[in-house]
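Lecture 7 notes: from sequence to structure.

We start with a single chain of 351 residues. Read the sequence below before looking at the structure.
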Amino acid sequence: MRVQEATEMPIPVGVNVGQFFRGVPVRWDERVREIEDLGFDGIWFAEAYGSDVFTPLAWCAARTTRVRLGTAVAQIPARSPAATAMAAATLDHLSGGRVVLGLGASGPQVSEGWHGVAFPRPLARTREYVEVVRQVLAREAPLTYDGEFHRLPLPSGTGLGKPLRSTLHHRRPDLPIQLGAEGPRNVALAAEIADGWHAMFFSPEADAFYRAALDAGFSRRPGGRPARFEVIATVPVVVDEDVERAADHVRPELALYIGGMGAREANFHHDVFTRLGYADVAARVQEFYLRGEKQAAAAAIPTALVEEVALVGPVGKIREELCRWESTVVDSLAVQGLPDDLALVARAVLG
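Now the structure, written as tokens:
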């Protein structure tokens, strides 16, 4: 377990904006600049079946000079691995080498319902995908790959496909690739093949569980854990003198993920809270949510569960509880969402 010395820098903290809902957030340009000016470490974006992940990062690249620009995460079924590598490498040039490429398998509802890509065997698909992306970025030879899910050049079709090498000379052939993962096998895969793991709903109480999953992956990796491997946790942060009121801001989002993000029989977020010991709560939230009773689903989430995976309450309380994350396998944090008062959140998490 990492213990921070008094002389060490505080744990880096970025902002995970997530995805746009309905439209672009108000005061968008001003708030992006504020993220960098306040000292946050990075800006991260997500995607599901609305806004994409690379366009807003390109927009932010033009308006910032220091912060990292990360996908958390880019959906694997949304693009071919070559297309993802092209987007990341192009943005890395435009941003001066600030891109972190986070990848995730998504879930069966989005993969098959939105992108039309079969979901079974997501770990095997992810492994192949990362291998192709790395080949494109390396530019060591024209691209060829003979896998179960990706075959390049395509053996069927016209027969005119040929191995090609990127015409763009990539700024960083070793551009960092992270995997978004929640289950132990997926976390282990990140440790085995990627440069980092981007965690969602991380609880410091589950540190030993995740540490074991990471160690399992590192044990299969030649040379063990790489020096630059990074664990980033996206954490909801709500500053309010009233803890219950702060928790109320987080409950609807948790209810969505526990109860409605995925099918009843395939909801990986639901599984996270079951492993944390909240199986009965998770089942009740799911029942309410799938019946359309979203307010009841949110109300069924106890404050103790919110405090397992979020930082809520007064600045002093958040500062104290932040130490729980700093003493775990987590190397850096990302504030979930775009807070209305960025300065206040910065005071709580950056000091």
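The first helix runs from residue 28 to 37. Keep this in mind for problem set 3.
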